[in-house]
Amino acid sequence: MKKDTKVVRAGHDKVRNAGIVNTPVYHASTIVFDSVAAMNDADERGFKRGENVMYYGRRGTPTHWTLQEAITDLAGGAGTVLAPSGLGACVLAIMGCVKAGDHILMTDSVYGPTRSFCSGFLKGFGVETTYYDPLIGADISNLMKPNTTLVFCESPGTHTFEVQDLPAIATAAHAGGAKVAVDNTWASPWFCQPIALGADISIEAATKYIVGHSDANMGTVTCTAETLSGVQRAYGALGLAVGVDDVYLATRGLRTLSVRLRQHQDNALKVAAWLKAQPNVKRVLYPPLPDDPGHDLWKRDFSGGSGLFSVVFDQASTEAATALIDGMELFTIGYSWGGFESLIVPSAPSGARSATKWAEPEPGIRLHVGLEDPDDLIADLDRGLARFRKTLG
Ligand SMILES: Cc1ncc(COP(=O)(O)O)c(C=O)c1O
Known about the structure:
Elements: H1 3-9, H2 36-48, H3 62-75, E1 79-83, H4 86-95, E2 103-107, H5 112-121, E3 128-132, E4 148-154, H6 166-175, E5 179-183, H7 188-191, E6 201-204, E7 219-223, H8 225-237, H9 244-254, H10 257-276, E8 281-285, H11 295-301, E9 308-313, H12 318-326, E10 332-333, E11 343-347, E12 364-368, H13 374-392
Parallel strand pairs: 2-3, 2-4, 4-5, 5-6, 10-11
Antiparallel strand pairs: 1-7, 6-7, 8-9, 9-12, 11-12
Helix pairs in contact: 3-9, 4-8, 10-13, 12-13
Bound molecules: pyridoxal-5'-phosphate (PLP).
Pyridoxal-5'-phosphate binds next to helix 4.
């Protein structure tokens, strides 16, 4: 099946759904059985053999299975574990690959809370993390230690947008005996499949483009056969349960992922190209732009670009950036991204780096370009840049 078909049909099981197009929401904790033997059989088949069998709500229902199977199909792995948030998915992927005494290599461009989990919480459990230059490529081999069990990537980083050479990193990591996990949220499984590029685990903050409507948090961890049981074990041990109403929203969002992302890309390209030509704009960090430093790798490994990028100004002025942001009409102020609407936040990534220096003037802005008419978005930004210039004086 081609990607467009998978987005619409994957995970749909006519018999399981009793003919209903969208898998119904199965609210369930207790599942009742006719006998002890039937209960034990369900346990054996579900827990030990990994079959989709109703046993207890926390272990999954048809609502969960539909989304899990659809994401696995799109991302190209052996199975998918759901998480209650994107951060939860990053944590699950890490917990599935490490134990006390292990060492993680983590990209310096990683999402802040994933960094905090490793540097703070996980450190207390005897796991060490070293941060590396996102552009390191095959030279990651120089940082590998005998106890390095995981190399964590995020490509592109969602404030600074460096595109990582995933095949080169995966080859070097595997040679040193480590697994590779990639936070693939910017591209979604629609525009990039990290497992096909050599990764072992592909993570999505489904909160963004998969849910797509800014109304639920959700994460997915798609694994190769070798990494699946570790992540499943972490899910069970941590006592996680992903609410079925949110899973329903994620599955419904998924069905329109392809058409939404095409429009996000068209709009973002138009807005980014316009911004690049404006006075006071030093750089637009968007790999689909032909002169972006990550463009060649992006072209090789991705089939498109989403709606998220950052803008670096030629001068560092908190007052001017704030005047721009505060007066926006269509780009509303708020965290997260991937919904249908345009968003704006200030961006000052230098404080969250430890292996590399981010030396651009700060703050810049990070934009999520939504599905509004791009001409209206450009007019909003035009007025914002006028406020920026007026405040600079
Ligand atoms: C790249 C990336 N990964 C993970 C997350 C976490 O997702 P959630 O907010 O659902 O925990 C985010 C959220 O902004 C993100 O940008």
